[in-house]
Design goal:
This protein is mainly α. The protein is 84% helix and 0% strand. Helix 1 (3-24) runs antiparallel to helix 2 (28-50). The termini are far apart.
Length: 96
């Protein structure tokens, strides 16, 4: 097995674990974390796909996309966590 294949299969496994967690989880926080795992797995696959044979240089475009995806992922996670917190406070006031 080549390292590319090992890393690619790892990225697919991380993405799959996140997808199963997002589809099966009932808790909102667990769903957000599962979707974060999906994005990490997809980014990992992009980085693995960018590498070529050792004499050639890696393609910089997928690396730039992964860096942009990390920034978007962090901001989307922050918004999702703020929404979850707001929903929990609204549900707590409705129960009173």
């Amino acid at each position: 097995m080549t390292p590319d294949l090992i890393y690619g299969l790892t990225g697919i496994a991380v993405f799959g674990i996140g997808l199963v967690g997002a589809l099966c989880a009932q808790d909102r926080l667990r769903r957000v974390l599962a979707l974060k795992l999906c994005s990490v797995g997809a980014g990992f696959l992009l980085v693995v796909g960018a590498w070529r044979e050792p004499p050639a240089t890696p393609d910089p475009v997928p690396h730039a996309l992964v860096i942009t995806g990390i920034v978007v992922m962090v901001s989307a996670t922050a918004v999702a966590l703020a929404l979850i917190r707001r929903l929990q406070t609204l549900e707590a006031t409705d129960e009173r």
